[in-house]
Description:
Shape: globular
Enzyme class: oxidoreductase
CATH topology of the largest domain: Quinone Oxidoreductase, Chain A, domain 1
Keywords: Metal-binding, Oxidoreductase, Zinc
EC number: 1.1.1.2
Order of helices and strands: EEEHEEEHEEEHHEHEHEHEHEHEHEHE
Pfam families: ADH_N, ADH_zinc_N
Strand content: 25-35%
Helix content: 10-25%
Number of domains: 2
Oligomer: single chain
Catalytic activity: a primary alcohol + NADP(+) = an aldehyde + NADPH + H(+)
Amino acid sequence: xxxxxxxxxxxxxxxxxxxxxxxxxxxxxxxxxxxxxxxxxxxxxxxxxxxxxxxxxxxxxxxxxxxxxxxxxxxxxxxxxxxxxxxxxxxxxxxxxxxxxxxxxxxxxxxxxxxxxxxxxxxxxxxxxxxxxxxxxxxxxxxxxxxxxxxxxxxxxxxxxxxxxxxxxxxxxxxxxxxxxxxxxxxxxxxxxxxxxxxxxxxxxxxxxxxxxxxxxxxxxxxxxxxxxxxxxxxxxxxxxxxxxxxxxxxxxxxxxxxxxxxxxxxxxxxxxxxxxxxxxxxxxxxxxxxxxxxxxxxxxxxxxxxxxxxxxxxxxxxxxxxxxxxxxxxxxxxxxxxxxxxxxxxx
Length: 348
């Protein structure tokens, strides 16, 4: 395959509606795989970036870092995959490969910066284009195998939403005997509930209202509280070993930190566009940790997919045609999806 143009949906400029277009894909190199994309999840971060919410983007922008598909071609040096294999691509497609974090399999923390799947530049300085397209070419070392037990459509969101929750839950040792709260029951939060419950933790959902309580309990939560009820923070003071916040709006951190036990951790995986404030006594008083976590490396992403297949965990999705992407963005912003939009790329 030489450089070719593939069909895609792109934002031509910041805040502009996405529209059908074509973008270039590089030739299949020595260690590359060409992936026929079957499904691409819509992540809230796609919206942030397409609308310059996290800083100036590279346009035209083809979002999408929740990619599930089938290998259509392999380079002559490829050893990990063969044509026909089911594979996924997450939030990055390259890294320096030499720093301590890359060598550790924590490429997401690459000292020189990982190459994002979209809205980034590769080592040749060319822009990267994401999964809202029919095909993508990636180095075999930055693709992961999707186990046969997972349908590709419900597996796609695991490449961001799944690993974004699995990584901190594993790192902070969610499991039997641990009380874990997930803040927000959306695209990220619903996977947090499923994974934390499968790990054996006692799971509580903290959501603005009780509107999704029935869903939360079905997904694996043991308890569900509304944060718009002021008594919630009084009732749950000092309850949790770990709280993972998936929301992308600023929270009253002091109130949430009061819910932790001594040595508890509050971990942010949602990324608000605005700064947040904090009274440091909220962490000093209970030797508490305020932390963040960013996706996961390639080995951990594979571990997460295998774990989800073993436990029968996939995302709760609404499958859409590509022509519905702009509508889906608005619905994500109004929390009108249960719980992840996935694009059928055959409609591109």
